[in-house]
Amino acid sequence: MSIISAQLSDPVSWLVLAGGGLQATAHLFKNQIVLRLVLLAGTLHYIAYYFAASAQPLWPAIMATATLAIGAVIGLYRALTSPPKVTCNCLILSEANENVCNDHEVLRVVKK
Q1: Domain assignment present for 50
Q2: Is the CB of residue 92 less than 8 Å from the CB of residue 76?
Q3: In which domain, by residue range, is 23 found?
Q4: DSSP string, 62-109
Q5: Statement: residue 107 has pLDDT above 60
Q6: How distant, in Å, are the alpha carbons of 5, 27, 70, 106 from that of 67?
Q7: 98 lies in a domain?
Q8: pTM for the model
Q9: pLDDT computed for residue 34 by the predictor
Q10: In the chain, is it the N or the C terminus that has fewer CB atoms within a 10 Å radius of its CB?
Q11: Is the pLDDT of residue 78 over 60?
């Protein structure tokens, strides 16, 4: 039996594989809330792996990963509680169109 198949037959190994897969997948999301929730799920898989990987829990790894989890929770809280950003995508081409975006800064294109 190869080393890889022996490792994959251990259910604990699937925790770290799932954690890595979740964290890699998290970076594909543009939505900050979804990104941070998936990142947090991956981090929790890593913490579970560090508890189960050996006879003694891997406390330094658990503490370091818990720090990352705290950062993800703080970022999630900020994403949930901060007001949405309002942007104006108006491009004003002439003075006649200034009233299109009267509440926002007017950008004029000047021909030379």
Answers
A1: yes
A2: no
A3: 3-81
A4: HHHHHHHHHHHHHHHHHHHHSPPP------B-SGGGGGGGTTS---B-
A5: no
A6: 32, 19, 5, 44
A7: no
A8: 0.67
A9: 93
A10: C
A11: yes
The more confidently predicted of residues 86 and 77 is: 77
Cβ neighbours around 40 below 10 Å, total = 21
**In the structure encoding, which two tokens stand for residue 74, read together?**
């703080």
User: DSSP class of residue 2?
Assistant: -
Cβ distance 48 to 64 under 8 Å?
no
Residue 89 covered by a domain: no
What distance in Å separates the CA atoms of residue 12 and residue 56, rounded to the nearest whole number? 14
Which residues does residue 92 pair with via DSSP β-bridges, in sequence order? Answer: 108
Mean residue pLDDT of the chain comes to: 80
Cα 62–Cα 45–Cα 70 angle in degrees, nearest 5: 55
The total number of structural domains in the chain stands at 1
Which residues are CB-neighbours of 93 under 8 A, at least 6 positions away?
108, 109
| Residue of higher predicted confidence among 111 and 13 | 13
The pLDDT of residue 63? 96
**Mean pLDDT to the nearest integer, 31-57:** 93
